Fold these 2 entries.
Entry 1:
Amino acid sequence: MTEIKLGKSTVRAGGRPYVIAEIGVNHEGSMDTAKRLIDLCKEGGADAAKFQTYKASRIASKHSPAYWDTSKEPTQSQHKLFQKYDMFGKDEYVTLAEHCQDVGIDFLSTPFDSDAADFLDPLLPFHKIASADLTNVPLLRQIAGKKKPVLLSTGASTLDEIDHAVSTLEKAGCQDLILLHCILNYPCPNENAHLDMIKGLRHTYPDTLIGYSDHTLPDERMLILTAAWQKGAVVLEKHFTHDKTLPGNDHYHAMDVHDLKRFIENVDLLTVVSGEQGKKPLDAEAPAREHARRSIVIDRPLKAGTVLDESDLTYKRPAHGISPLHWDEVVGRSLSTDLEEDHILQWEDLA
């Protein structure tokens, strides 16, 4: 797969990344905050603003323990945590999708159950499946049947599990698939990021585009996300907030608009300096080729008829005469005229 259309963009290996700012439920049930976050995603330069769509009663039992850093998010039950943030329904997501369209950014939301997958589908240019649902065969089949591109996060997964998920999606009708490297730590310590797994996935799935869903704490220069792109991730997803100091949920490991802008600046700079792969001299290098390269130069005064020996010659700038590339062709030739020391040798000087 050389390229895939995602919303308003086309992603391909070696191209600019498609950047997903994952608002998730950092709106905390406020439509005004959700719209403001969309605006900030656009301001920061993201390609998509993404939410999470679930109902606590459909995603987790009442006996589901916490698996996150409870010093940051103290809720001890998944069910209780999801209950805090499952206020939005179909109408709210339609409103958010319309707001995304108004500001010119792709709308996305990850569905966590069958109902969500169905009512979100008309609003989405493509689907994102969370790492936790990589083994959820019925949901994989349902989403694949929508016949849209699919992004599949692979956090906490074995290669056998990824193989099974890929096979399930393909058999159910998915034709455009992007796998996202992901580590399910919240937050993910830098030493656990294992960005070289991006290379591993590219090697294991050479015909599939690879991306990265990041849970590390945003560093000042956004080097981790930048490095993931440089290692071949064509889609980059990271949690997004308007205030990283807010307690609980996904604020504490999210980027804000300033982080996002710094990352986009990194992409802009590296896109400029990356240039073309094929090695060739640039027009801008023409003066250096002409004036900084060497010519064969006469090292002492010589008379016409002198048979040139290496001791008669040296090499100096500029490259206005015979190049030292032809050194072996020049040695042993005789001169057609008298030449002074430091003369830049020309072919017409040779008999």
Entry 2:
Amino acid sequence: MKSFNIHDAKTNLSKLVEKAAHGEPFIIARAGKPLVKVVPIDAPSKVRRIGSMEGQFKIPDDFDTMLKDEIKSLFDGDR
């Protein structure tokens, strides 16, 4: 992803926005440090919903204690 300093971004804002709108996001930086990322509004966001995998797997009843002895031996250096 391309990065532009603030001065270049201001100078070429129309062109950069047009490119971003067509799927070419860019970063605006100050003194080499990224400040903002410009992406099109309709770009899919990577939002994860809590509970979105409900019912897709089952947690075992002994989840908190399973492999207890093996884990303990790894910490104690028995292996």
